[in-house]
Amino acid sequence: MVTGGAGYVGSVVAAHLLERGDEVVVLDDLSTGFREGVPAGAGFVEGRIQDAARWLDPSFDGVLHFAAFSQVGESVAKPEKYWENNVGGTMALLAAMRAAGVRKLVFSSTAATYGEPETVPITESAPTAPTSPYGASKLAVDHMIGGECAAHGLAAVSLRYFNVAGAYGEQGERHDPESHLIPLVLQVAQGRREAISVYGEDYPTPDGTCVRDYIHVADLAEAHLLALDAMTGGSGAAGSVPPGEHLVCNLGNGNGFSVREVVETVRKVTGHPIPEITAERRPGDPAVLVASADAARERLGWTPSRPDLADVVADAWTFAQQREGVRA
Asked: What is the 3-state secondary structure (H, E, C) of 256-288?
């Protein structure tokens, strides 16, 4: 079962699972996902994770959990929405898994659990001090999963990743409204947006704008499959996460790119001018988030194969142009 499999990352992971021959059922309430995002060949159930017990049964080998709200700014304005869905929904999902005897979980966590890092690159042993209710809700779920593993024998991997971008075939970012930097800049290149807003230019970074570690969505999907294999005896580091263990791994390229570096890369890839507008900082945005992915390499056998930002942007640009053709 892939919860949130009609969303961006979940749909790409579902597509990868199908390609290697797995049977996939997507559970999504379509509150932020899109029915057309569910890859062909996957079963689909429209529903909330709070009601997962209606569909989860012993025939499932495991759950990959992506069904969360993920907007930092919105979480500051509406924290109750994030506690109810991200934490309350996951609690219900874990109960459903326990009742059905499904004992393998891969959780889509986030680097936002770390807040403002003390050192960069960030390792899994870094202090967790999230600066937004979104990050706090994901950290609460990580703690919840750890307790479930210790008490009830769940095998679980939490993957804390940084900024995901790019596209994979027919799967790409189609958020409505869009809030992620690369697709927003691409909208400027398409003429759908007049300029890109740069939120803050006084951060303690080389050019004053936020620095993030961008990871290609296909690399991310491959890490989720390796995490599942680590619990099921498949390929990769099979069997390295036994029942009762909760493994936490960061996913990232280990390279940081500033907002202005991303904008300049989009200019080069698309050949279009990208006007900028400087805006106030957004609450809850750390200055620098760059990952150390050593644990994922050692425990899961994962190495990103698409680390170049220009390649990430080029794939996202191809998808954006395809979507523009559909809209036309």
From this structure: CEEHHHHHHHHHHHHCCCCCEEEECCCCCCCCE
How far is it, in rounded angstroms, from Cα 21 to Cα 5? Answer: 17
Q: What is the pLDDT along the chain (328 residues), one digit of tens a residue?
A: 999 999 999 999 999 999 999 999 999 999 999 999 999 999 999 999 999 999 999 999 999 999 999 988 899 999 999 999 999 999 999 999 999 999 999 999 998 899 888 888 999 999 999 989 999 999 999 999 999 999 999 999 999 998 899 999 888 888 777 778 999 999 999 999 999 999 999 999 999 999 999 999 999 999 999 999 998 754 445 568 899 999 999 999 888 999 999 999 999 999 999 999 999 998 767 788 898 999 999 999 999 999 999 999 999 999 999 876 644 3
| Cα(218)–Cα(207) distance, integer angstroms | 29
Q: Where are the alpha helices (DSSP H) in 101-180?
A: 133-152
- Which residues touch 177 (CB under 8 Å, ≥6 apart)? none
Residue 262: which of 204, 208, 211 has the closest Cα?
A: 211
Rounded CA-CA distance 36/31 in Å is: 13
State the pTM of this model: 0.91
Active-site positions read 134
- The amino acid at 63: V
Please state, in angstroms and rounded to a whole number, the distance separating the CA atoms of residues 1 and 33: 16
> How far, in whole angstroms, is CA 314 from its chain's centroid?
19
